[in-house]
Structures are given as C-alpha cells and as structure tokens.
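Quick one: co-fold with PBG.
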Amino acid sequence: MSVQPEKLIIATRASRLALWQAEFVQAKLQALYPACRVELLTMTTRGDQILDRTLSKVGGKGLFVKELETALLDGRADLAVHSLKDVPMDLGSPFQLAVVMDRADPRDAFVSNKYEKLADLPEGAVVGTSSLRRESQIRANFPHLVVKPLRGNLDTRLGKLDNGEYDAIILAAAGLQRLGLQERIRSCLSIQDSLPAAGQGALGIEILEARSDVLAALQPLSCPETLACVTAERAVSSFLGGSCQVPLAAHAVINGQNLTIQAFVALPDGTQVLRAQSSGPVEQAGQLGLDVAKELHRAGADKILATLLNN
Ligand SMILES: NCc1[nH]cc(CCC(=O)O)c1CC(=O)O
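Sure, here it is.
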C-alpha cells in the first residue's frame, strides 16, 4: 500500500542555500504526493547568528541543527532538510537520519577574481576559508600562501572576496552550483588535492524516530549509493570524534560493487598529514570506514586530535 501523507512541513534554515535545499525537497515531495500540502517552516539558527567568530571556536556543526530539531519535537515540522556535512555523526534519540539523497558535486571550488587556480597564486596571496580541513590541505600543498578565516553565508563570503579582502576563497562547489553561482567557480580542486568533508554535497533529511509514517513517505527520495558512501565517510568521523573543529576529511566512491574510501587527519598548519584508504564490497561501507579510521588512529590521529582539542 502506498503512503499518501496529507501534510508535510519542512523545517529549514533561512539562508539562501538552505532555502534552495528545502524547496528542492519540497518540489520532489509535491511531485510524489500531489494531494499533499508540503510547506516550509523557515528558522534562524544560532549558527546563522554567530558571524564574528570562527565556527570551530563556537561549538561547531550542531549549531545549525538544534533549532530545527526543536521544531520537530514541538510538532511544528515533520522533517528537517540539512546539508549532510553539517549533521552531527550521532543525532541521538529521538531523532534519526531518515534519508540521504543523491549527491551533487562533492569537490571544493576555487573562487577568485584574479586567478585561475591555487597554483597560480603568488607568494603571500591571501586565501579565505574557515574550514580547518581546507586550511591544512592548502598549507601542506602551498606553504607560501596565507590562509585567513572567512565566515558567513555564501553571499557574504563572495562579497568579502569582491571587496578585496582575499585574493581567492575556497567554497563547496555544490553550494555555488545550487545557487546558480557556478560561473564564480574558476576551477575545482581535485579530490586528491582537497579531500572533501564527510557527506559534502549530499542532502540529509532528519525526522523523529517515532514518525514511521514520514519515514515511509520519504523513502522514494533515498539514494542507496550515496547512503553507502556517506555511511563509510561518517564512520570515519564518528570513530575519530570528528566535527568541523578538526581537520578531518573522508570521501568514498563506488565502482561497480566496490567502495573505496579515502580519509585524512592533519594539523591545520599542514606540517603533519596522515592518510589512509580502504576498498571492499559496498555492503561493508560502515566497516570500511571504520578500518580507515582505525588505521589513522594507529598512525597517530589521536595525538593530532588531542593537540587540537587542547588549544
Ligand atoms: N560549511 C558550510 C556548508 N555546508 C554545506 C555547504 C554546501 C555544500 C554541501 O552541501 O556540502 C556549505 C558551504 C561550504 O562549505 O562552502
């Protein structure tokens, strides 16, 4: 028997990117269930209000999720749409990650008004990013560049580039593409040069564990391949205690029945970079992620992470 919900309310942050993502899900649900009222509940989260400090210093990713969860608990909304990258590894009861959708471009993008790519930047050029993951890889590959923090939503960040505060900035390609800003991308960093964050480019939908009705209604939006990849990626972060406070990257791809996961942990200054990789059957996605995490752990990831947490 098919599930025909009468009403579905989507909680979303108010940023342009979050709204695009929520409207994307809204349109998919409306197409699936023409008789259903699919509406948005737009909210401002603490993460959106804190613009003056580096996110890694104010408690990280959970900031973008909490207010939306309150709306789920209150019954003001039935589902919350997130960039999966911003979703904590363990949502914890009574919440669950109901669906992982098809992944967009997972790469990081190089954005500049003067240069084509990172390799073209001269000594001392200023690159904007507040991601320790991006910072560590830039510093490791291009030690002659200056990395300067960059906060705010996508429009704010682009504005700071345009007013000359930076020679170039690094942003997720997926966000720019979703907002129709793909012409701002001068080049994409290769997966090898800038290994993406766990879940980058994928959308996740969160609901209450108790809402089996919503879970069933959302299943057609699920992408099993992306789910397998992000399961492996999130297993790495989960084991190593990753959040956006640590320079941790994890990226998986599927080839036929085979999944390959690559991950790294680094010091933000790029002087130490630990890498690991594992391949195996797609069905073992979580285990493959765990294998990679344990290999990084044995190689000294715990010491790197401890150094960072004590700073
Ligand atoms: N850290 C913020 C964030 N969370 C999700 C995206 C967009 C890309 C995605 O969906 O992964 C971005 C922007 C960015 O990193 O430049």
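If it helps, The CA atoms of residues 165 and 251 lie 31 Å apart.
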